[in-house]
Amino acid sequence: MLRNRRQFVQQAGALTASSFLLPWIQQPALDAITEKRRELDHLSAEAFAQKEDFWVLIQRAYQQSPHFINLENGYFSPQPVEVMEAQMNNIRMINEQPSFYMRKRQWDDKAGVKKLLAQQAGCSPEEIVITRNTTESLDTVIHGLDFEPGSEAIMCDQDYGSMLEAFDQQARRRGLVNKFIELPLHPVSDSEIVERYEKAITDKTKVMLVTHLINITGQVLPVRKICDMAHRHDVQVIVDGAHSFAQLDFKIPDLGADYFGASLHKWLCCPLGAGILYVRKDRIANVWPLFGDAGHAADDIRKLEHIGTHPVSTNLTIAAALRFHQMIGDRRKQERLRYLKRYWTEQVKEVPGITLNTPWEMERSSAIANVAVDGYTPQELWDKLYDDYRIWTVAINRKAVKGIRVTPHLYTPIEHLDQFVAALKELAS
Ligand SMILES: Cc1ncc(COP(=O)(O)O)c(C=O)c1O
Q1: How do residues 211-221 score in pLDDT, each as one tens digit?
Q2: How far apart are alpha carbons 231 and 226 in whole angstroms?
Q3: Average pLDDT of the chain?
Q4: What's 105-324's CATH class?
Q5: CB of 73 closer than 6 A to ligand 1?
Q6: CA gyration radius for the chain?
Q7: Disulfide engineering: 259 pairs with which of 141, 174, 272, 337, CB 3.0-4.6 Å?
Q8: pTM of structure
Q9: Would you say 425 and 351 are in contact if contact means Cβ atoms under 8 Å apart?
Q10: Distance in Å, CA 350 to ligand 1 centroid
Q11: To 5 degrees, how large is the angle CA 259–CA 406–CA 326?
Q12: Are 52 and 414 in contact (CB under 8 A)?
């Protein structure tokens, strides 16, 4: 009897030890990628971006539908096959030891993943929370700050709806005054943007929302300069990094933001429902948790982790996604995505009837671009590309910008972009 119990305990221990760190990713595929990368390591990231014999290996690491060309990776990213398998294994592992895992193991495993994520983000694990998405991350901050009636917040006409709606709710609930600035589609300099935010500041301004990479146009904003300017006026900055995290090469503290949120199912290629919230250490005490928490001090970020039972398998799988991402490298990934965007936009930018709504300078965008064709509404262009060419994009019909959003990914073959360019030219003629 005693022997049986000991055997059981030993087995349970063996099954659960640091499960997320096990090498779920299929080694042969990853070895080939790593070997090729080492061979090309001497190249600059810009030159590396054009080495198709490396990127073809990355394309094979993802599973794509053969039925259409997917140029809509702005919504979320598919996972590399190996990351998806890690997720399946994590689901299976938790399902095998249900409440035993949740009561005994999840905390250590999640702390381990958080440490890895903090390394990628360049900050302390004590400044981040794993959330479900950008909406949860940033709405936690917007709803968690205290605002006096009449105090002001600044945002722009191209920020994301969920955050604007959260600010609108604060306006209706607490009398916050929301002020909007308009962003230029083609800024001539960083100062032009910084000045627009600065002009909106008054002595009542408490906070600003700034989107690092605008989702509808792909424009990258000079966030560091905006934050430095805002801090000179004693204004705090909430940065929406939904699209910048793991797409652009930066560490969160480089931005100088007070609060930063991103979705890990976008450019880190995690399973759906993974996000990150960063709160600068000295700002943690400012934020009330959305879900009550009595277990942690006001300046302990873990007070924001209390969300009830959730799919821990998703949190654990972040480790596999980080490993895949880091195998490529931040800078190489950024430059490849920029190269793909430049590859197709270069071929259409002078074509009569075609308008690009994304800044041209390399540092002002990345994978995402927005394009319009004369004679087509965004919806018509979106439909036409899918119905006649089986090319999937998305229509953007906002006051500030009208066109379709085109977002290739690491797995996009050059031939797909050639087909897209041919389709655009045909429609424009
Ligand atoms: C700029 C921006 N912010 C926030 C979000 C919200 O992301 P999620 O739905 O993952 O919360 C998105 C989604 O596309 C986005 O583009």
Answers
A1: 999 999 999 99
A2: 9
A3: 94
A4: alpha beta
A5: no
A6: 23
A7: 141
A8: 0.93
A9: yes
A10: 31
A11: 55
A12: yes
Query: Is pLDDT of 206 > 80?
Result: yes
Report how far residue 36's alpha carbon sits from residue 42's, in angstroms, rounded to the nearest whole number: 12
Q: Which of 62-66, 148-152, 324-328, 344-348 is least confident? A: 62-66
Contacts of 353 (CB under 8 A, 6+ apart): 373, 374, 375, 428, 429
Ligand 1 centroid – CA 253 distance (Å): 21
Dihedral (C-alpha) 277, 115, 367, 41: value to the nearest 10 degrees?
160
Domain ranges of the chain: 105-324
- Asked if residue 11 has pLDDT above 70, the reply is no
Contact 79, 318 (CB under 8 A): no
Number of C-beta neighbours around residue 26 at 10 A: 14
Q: Which of 2-11, 41-50, 193-202 shows the lowest per-residue confidence on average (mean pLDDT)?
A: 2-11
β-bridge mates for residue 262, sequence order: 276
Tokens 């700034």, located at residue: 210
Q: Helical H runs in 17-147?
A: 27-40, 45-48, 52-60, 81-96, 98-100, 106-121, 134-144
State pLDDT tens for residues 310-366: 999 999 999 999 999 999 999 999 999 999 999 999 999 999 999 999 999 999 999
As to burial, measured by CB atoms within 10 angstroms (0-12 exposed, 13-18 middle, 19+ buried), residue 105 is buried
Q: How far apart are CA 375 and CA 394, in angstroms?
A: 17
- Mapped onto helix, strand or coil, the DSSP state of residue 175 is coil
